[in-house]
Design goal:
Bound molecules: adenosine-5'-diphosphate, magnesium ion
Largest sheet: 8 strands, mixed
Number of strands: 23
Number of helices: 22
Helix content: 25-40%
Strand content: 15-25%
Structural class: alpha/beta
């Protein structure tokens, strides 16, 4: 059978319907998928020692001959072992297999094998337990660097390795070389075929590093190209023209003067919407910088031009909050607002839907429910997404599709500061307005980094603030099974257990509630609503509260195990307090004695500049985090761990920019492979180049 990249894995020997299904769960359907399924790590099985020389306690391969027939013995019910004596020129060793009775027949007296495992005992009483073994000279699993793959039930590492080993030699050369030769040469990148073979079965550690570097480069290069193409494509489309208005009329609606940053962002958005091309703008600003005002201005502009707008928030409570505050602001200007959420009653839902379709609502405020079938507009021309990292690009696109033929203007608001170095990759297809200024009179959240020894004092501080009428957040990391949570509590239930402890032992006189990600959405919303209404004093939570609910009365944020969070995330979290007229405090509890982690956290007590913090985070933790789950909109990166790859990132970006400058649409024949790869990479995002 001639293998090609399109060959279905079911045609490979040893893959039946059950295994094919299991492989499908890993996204492996074809031979091509198999080749692109990169190992998550590697095990060094290259080191071959003699029995006498093997360093005690280290994992090594030992080549030896089976000296006597293997013997089986039954220790007790359910525990059988096979013992083998193996010898080489230097010594003898005892190899023991637990519950692998088939080894009795697999190993033959007088034959030579490679055993990989931990060498134990002194040279004269060498032992190995449950080693991996194969005939000497076979070189399938031993004597080489072994790939370790991410697995699922029904798929073993040996299965994937064996399949890849079968396909890679024949198929690695079939993968199109997407990097233009001059780019490859200029950046010293190895050829595609070499890399596909060596990312799976590296000839050496150097070869692996070469393959890895190329794939990281390739991935970032494609991403940059794709973003640039999306942008170019968008700029060709026609957008509704919103005629320029006297913005002072809008500013006069506000109970306060806009900040300079708000003015700038608003003017940039207004210019986009008057340009004849669809706006695609991101407003990026710290929590509390007043992004909602910019959104309101855009909706107001649309209204002045007889068009409808929709603003989508990530949670119901946030949608309600926006609905109330925007109504207060915009109703006096004659705008009609409607709320669209999942929990509305049937009658209310029908009323709003009818009003929307008849054009009797100018601004729809809602949750994902806005995307439902049956929600239709008469003339939707502006789509606003709040807290963009909770929305995929697909969802933005789905809402835009409700605008009909014409591309609507799109405004995205985000409080996640992305370091300048990454902005192009993360937001490459958006224009960005940065709001780097807070409304006047805000004092930065006073932030302290403390250890366990200050815990009682901190509890005292909580009591004092609550007695003054304030409210408190306590955030715990989502702890993995078996890890230590706050106060030594283990596993994810830590939040519940910790809340119970606070309630019963620490603050019996206070009203304590908790909320975590595993709760039903409805229950979560109810707990949050009660806190917002002031019915709870202390709210214990995982990071579900990260999203911008406004509780002006909350004055203190405590973060347990703060060292587990990224600085940017902590900065986001503390933005939840000090939003009203009360001073905001943040206490970062860190059990870790390590000076490094304390030093990292201290950045937060020194500055409240979100961008500086993001840059610092990037410097300390590498860019992997920024490409993590927070950025749903991006195509998934294979080599997610980009830590330490900043240099490659910059090189790839620069190379992509240069290439696009010389061939803007990637139309030259030598760029055809690249263009087709980029298209398929982005096709799953709901974006299209056609
Ligand atoms: P975010 O950028 O986090 O979405 P919001 O839009 O929710 O911020 O604004 C936070 C608070 O600041 C709101 O209560 C809002 O009314 C207030 N605010 C916004 N702009 C100004 C301003 N220019 N002056 C004073 N207060 C403002
Ligand atoms: Mg907001």
């Amino acid at each position: 059978m001639a293998l090609t990249l399109d060959t279905d894995v079911r045609e490979l020997p040893g893959v039946g319907p059950t295994r094919a299904k299991a492989l499908g769960r890993l996204g492996i359907v074809s031979v091509g998928d198999l080749l692109s399924y990169f190992p998550r790590s590697y095990e060094d099985r290259t080191k071959i020692c003699t029995i006498a020389d093997a360093p005690e306690g280290e994992s090594v391969c030992i080549a030896a001959m089976v000296a006597q027939p293997p013997r089986i013995s039954r220790i007790r019910r359910g525990l059988e072992l096979v013992r083998v004596k193996a010898v080489d020129d230097t010594a003898a060793m005892t190899v023991t297999f637990f519950n692998q009775t088939y080894m009795k027949d697999a190993l033959r007296q007088g034959e030579r094998y490679l055993f990989f495992g931990r060498a134990e005992g002194p040279p004269r009483a060498r032992q190995m337990t449950n080693p991996v073994c194969e005939r000497e000279g076979q070189g399938r699993f031993l004597g080489r660097i072994m790939p370790i793959y991410r697995l699922t039930a029904g798929v073993s590492n040996n299965l994937i390795s064996a399949l890849v080993e079968r396909c890679a030699p024949a198929c690695a050369e079939q993968v199109d070389e997407v990097l233009p030769t001059q780019v490859r040469l200029a950046h010293h990148l190895a050829q595609s075929e070499f890399c596909y073979r060596n990312i799976h079965f590296p000839e050496s550690w150097e070869a692996l590093e070469m393959a890895r570097r190329r794939f990281v480069f390739e991935e970032l290069f494609q991403l940059t190209c794709g973003m640039a193409l999306l942008r170019a494509r968008r700029e060709e489309k026609a957008g509704t023209v919103f005629s320029a208005q006297d913005l002072d009329k809008f500013w006069a609606l506000l109970p306060f003067a806009p900040t300079r940053a708000q003015r700038r962002a608003a003017e940039e958005a207004a210019a986009d919407m008057a340009s004849g091309r669809p706006m695609n703008r991101l407003v990026q600003g710290d929590v509390g910088s007043g992004k909602t005002v910019v959104a309101a201005l855009c909706a107001w502009l649309a209204f002045q031009n007889g068009a409808q707008s929709a603003i989508m928030a990530p949670t119901e409570i946030l949608a309600r909050q926006h609905f109330l505050s925007l109504s207060e602001l915009l109703a006096p200007a004659g705008m009609r607002l409607g709320l669209v959420t999942g929990s509305q009653g049937a009658a209310e839902r029908r009323r709003v839907r009818e009003a929307l379709v008849r054009g009797e609502i100018d601004l729809a405020v809602g949750t994902h429910a806005l995307l439902s079938e049956g929600v239709e507009f008469r003339r939707l021309s502006l789509v606003i997404a709040d807290e963009q990292h909770r929305f995929g690009v697909e969802q933005r696109a789905a809402l835009s599709a409700k605008a009909g033929e014409r591309s609507p203007h799109v405004l995205v608001m985000s409080a996640t500061p992305i370091p300048r170095t990454l902005a192009l990759i993360v937001y490459g297809d958006l224009d960005v307005s940065v709001m780097d200024e807070l409304p006047p009179g805000r004092t930065p959240v006073e932030t302290y980094v403390v250890g366990e020894n200050k815990r009682q004092r901190m509890y005292g501080f909580v009591r004092r603030l609550v007695s003054e009428g304030r409210q408190v957040y306590v955030v715990c990391p989502a702890v993995e099974e078996g890890e230590e949570g706050p106060e030594g509590l283990s596993d994810l239930k830590a939040v519940t257990a910790y809340a119970a402890k606070l309630k019963e032992e620490v603050f019996p006189e206070l009203r304590v509630a908790f909320v975590h990600g595993k709760m039903k959405a409805k229950d979560k919303e109810a707990v949050m609503a009660a806190f917002a209404a002031g019915e709870t004093d202390v709210l214990v939570s995982t990071t579900v509260i990260e999203v911008g609910v406004d509780v002006p009365n909350a004055a203190l944020m405590i973060v347990e195990n703060a060292e587990r969070f990224g600085l940017s995330q902590l900065h986001q979290l503390r933005g939840r307090v000090g939003r009203g007229k009360h001073r905001g405090y943040c206490v970062l509890m860190s059990a870790e004695r390590g000076e490094e982690s304390r030093k990292r956290l201290r950045v937060l007590s020194e500055t409240s500049d979100g961008f500086r913090i993001a840059e610092e985070d990037l410097r300390l933790r590498g860019p992997g985090d920024f490409f993590g789950e927070r950025q749903h909109g991006l195509p998934q990166l294979h080599l997610a761990d980009l830590a330490g790859d900043m240099q490659v990132l910059k090189e790839a970006q620069k190379a992509a920019e240069e290439l696009l400058a010389s061939d803007p649409g990637l139309r030259r024949p030598e760029h055809a492979a690249l263009l087709s790869r980029v298209k398929s990479l982005f096709s799953s995002r709901g974006d299209s180049f056609n």
